[in-house]
Amino acid sequence: DTVVEPYNATLSVHQLVENADECMVLDNEALYDICFRTLKLTTPSFGDLNHLISATMSGVTCCLRFPGQLNSDLRKLAVNLIPFPRLHFFMVGFAPLTSRGSQQYRALTVPELTQQMWDAKNMMCAADPRHGRYLTASAMFRGKMSTKEVDEQMINIQNKNSSYFVEWIPNNVKSTVCDIPPTGLKMASTFIGNSTSIQE
């Protein structure tokens, strides 16, 4: 843990609230947790953390770079995810989580990806989404899959976990499908959530 980390966070928040349009919140604590618990790495390096960050941010911006059936861009994201201008701090997650250089041996299904990406253990920031409620969320899927299946899974998630979504924003989960998967994977998904638990 570095001594300057809390100072960086505290002193930058004011500028980010006022002058940024969208903030993806990532923190070292959550990234180390993922490396230790999920990827079972004994001594994660900054390279391992950067691998997680680059996979996630690549997923967030994939629709700007590749074609897709249900495409979106950063402007559409902002329109769908930000109910009030100051609430633009997003939790991000990625599935399937794999360590650098390892290959996915089993092809994942859309339900498995969905379950993994909504899991609190896959979030890249240390706030626990179960301690708050989702205002809005976006699920970005990459690879060959049917949009019908994606939509069914999103409806399923909302119905099963309705207590974790605010009731005053109906249909608050946006889904995107991009045809090109990340290198080395057949399918992947990126999660972006605007949750009240971010205040932790």
UniProtKB/TrEMBL annotation:
Family affiliation: Belongs to the tubulin family.
CDD domains recorded: beta_tubulin
Gene Ontology CC annotation, any one: microtubule
UniProt protein name: Tubulin beta-8 chain
One Pfam short name: Tubulin_C
Keywords (A to Z) from UniProt: GTP-binding, Microtubule, Nucleotide-binding
Single GO molecular function: mRNA binding
Species of origin: Noccaea caerulescens (Alpine penny-cress)
Domain Tubulin/FtsZ 2-layer sandwich stretches: 70-200
Lineage summary: Eukaryota, Viridiplantae, Streptophyta, Embryophyta, Tracheophyta
Keyword GTP-binding attached: yes
SUPFAM superfamilies tied to this protein: Tubulin C-terminal domain-like, Tubulin nucleotide-binding domain-like
